[in-house]
Amino acid sequence: MAAEPEVNIRTVCILGHSYIRRLKEFINASDLRTNLNLDMDSFKVDFRSRGGLTFKRLAHCAEFLRFDAPPDICFIQMGSNDLSLNNPQKVCTDLISYAQYLRDGVGIKTVIVGQLLRRQPWASRDKFNEDVVKVNNLLKEETGKVDGVYFWPHRGFWADLSYLGRDGVHIEGRSYLNGERHQQPKGIPRQQRLATQSPGKDKKQFPCKKLTIRNWRKKF
């Protein structure tokens, strides 16, 4: 009798600030969106989130630094709270550094950094939205220089700010449905995949010491 074929389930971790916490709540509110509508025989999705998360706080949160079993894919959505206090270059550097820690220190093969989203002008500091664009441009450029780290542009959130809720910061529930309609993930974007595989491409590394929890915490 032939042996049953081994089932290979890819594990996915989606982590970040309150956007991810609210996304999890939105998904759990309906059985129709369980596991991000991904085939449960092929993918297993887990969420790790904390409202108001910044890199300074993250450096002292074990849930964002330790994984009993590293997932195959990790998606990061954070940086907006940091941008309220720091310049675009600092936010980009911290995001890339953390992505490298997950990739080389934890052992996650594929790390994806999500695009930052804008806020209502009255709900953020002066020129916040301009700096969001700057961070995203930096991330798009720098992720192409690091193996296994990719930039993910969100679709359906750039025509206007109607996706925002009353607080001017968080995504309105129905906007998650807009995201489902506009964005159908099909793996790593081809352009990013080719960029990290091009022979002879300079694989510049961001300034990051040995990727250990101790060194990560020392940064902050």
Structure commentary:
The protein is an alpha/beta fold. It has eight helices and five strands. The protein has a five-stranded parallel β-sheet with strand order 2-1-3-4-5, sandwiched between helices. About 17% of the residues have low confidence.
Question: Short description, anyone?
Answer:
The protein has one domain (10-218): SGNH hydrolase (Rossmann fold, 3-Layer(aba) Sandwich), CATH 3.40.50.1110. Helix content is 35%, strand content 13%. The chain has helices at residues 18-28, 55-58, 80-83, 88-106, 128-143, 173-182, 190-197, 213-218; strands spanning 10-16, 43-49, 73-77, 110-114, 149-152.
CATH topology: Rossmann fold
From the structure provided, what is the oligomeric state, counting identical versus distinct chains? single chain
Q: Given the structure, what is the number of helices?
A: 8
The proportion of residues in beta strands is 5-15%
Query: Low-confidence spans: pLDDT under 50, at least 5 residues?
Result: 175-211
CATH superfamily: SGNH hydrolase
Strand order in space, largest sheet: 2-1-3-4-5
Number of domains: 1
Q: Which value, in Å, is the CA radius of gyration?
A: 18 Å
Q: Any guess at the CATH architecture?
A: 3-Layer(aba) Sandwich
The CATH first-level class comes to: Alpha Beta
Q: Please give the largest β-sheet.
A: 5 strands, parallel
Number of strands: 5
